[in-house]
Design brief:
Number of helices: 5
Largest sheet: 10 strands, antiparallel
Shape: globular
Helix content: 10-25%
Strand content: 25-35%
Distance between the termini: 42 Å
Strand order of the largest sheet: 4-3-2-1-10-9-8-7-6-5
Radius of gyration: 21 Å
Oligomer: single chain
Length: 239
């Protein structure tokens, strides 16, 4: 086949695919979505390989402009413990389209006293970021990715790259958008009092671990707060 004939063949093929996408979007959409990696399965929190969120948050506050201005610390040297919430902006049993936040920590010897909001940082947001869930169950199709913790807290991410506004169980409204970037699912949200939160979910190349990373960017912090969590795939949940 000549070079010109080969080019003509490829051009016709591209035109045919484009025409099919216009005429039958319901068919082409799922085929394209099928290329996205699968996060589905049941995952168990691996504390040994994960960041200590309590320490990460405390260090961030110690180094932040909030701390330097005399605010934003944990009064009494700690903050209240609690069961695993899904984090920002999810509440127990609620579903947030493209929601954000970490998965509930089972309490790591936290001291008494509430979390101070400080300047520009919401104490409730920080407390939720400090939580890790013991288990995480993920289901997925071409339109959404749903995550449920062991406490029943849940959220649903819609990777359509569109902005959404949703209220959590506490009545807090958060604006967010979610998209796929290669092998990673990325959810971005603007927290009303705390800045921008970016969540990233990615499965290891062997399918045995899930990496969940949260990054909080705020003018009130000296540098971004990054918390990385690792989950192991539960036995009997082969990829």
């Amino acid at each position: 086949m000549s070079r010109r004939a080969g080019h003509l063949c490829r051009t016709r093929l591209l035109l045919a695919v484009s025409a099919l996408a216009v005429a039958m979007p319901g068919l082409v959409g799922p085929l394209m979505a099928a290329d996205n990696p699968s996060l589905a399965g049941k995952w168990n929190f691996n504390a040994g390989q994960s960041d200590n969120a309590d320490e990460k948050i405390q260090n961030a506050q110690n180094n932040s402009a909030v701390r330097a201005a005399g605010g934003g610390g944990y009064p009494g040297g700690g903050y209240p413990g609690g069961g695993g919430g899904m984090g920002v902006p999810m509440g127990r049993g609620g579903i947030g389209m493209g929601g954000t936040g970490g998965m509930g920590r089972g309490g790591r010897g936290r001291g008494p006293g509430g979390m101070s909001q400080g300047r520009g940082i919401n104490g409730e947001d920080l407390q939720r970021l400090a939580e890790d869930s013991k288990t995480l169950t993920i289901s997925q199709d071409e339109q959404k990715v749903s995550l449920v913790s062991e406490t029943g807290d849940s959220k649903t991410l819609y990777p359509d790259e569109k902005k959404h506004k949703e209220k959590d169980a506490n009545g807090q409204t958060t604006e967010f958008k979610t998209h796929w970037e290669g092998q990673r699912l990325i959810a971005e949200s603007k927290l009303k009092h705390s800045g921008k939160l970016t969540e990233t979910y990615e499965v290891s190349s062997d399918g045995k671990q899930l990496y969940a990373t949260e990054r909080l960017d705020s003018s009130s912090l000296g540098e971004p707060l990054v918390i990385r969590r690792v989950y192991d795939k539960a036995s009997g949940n082969a990829r």
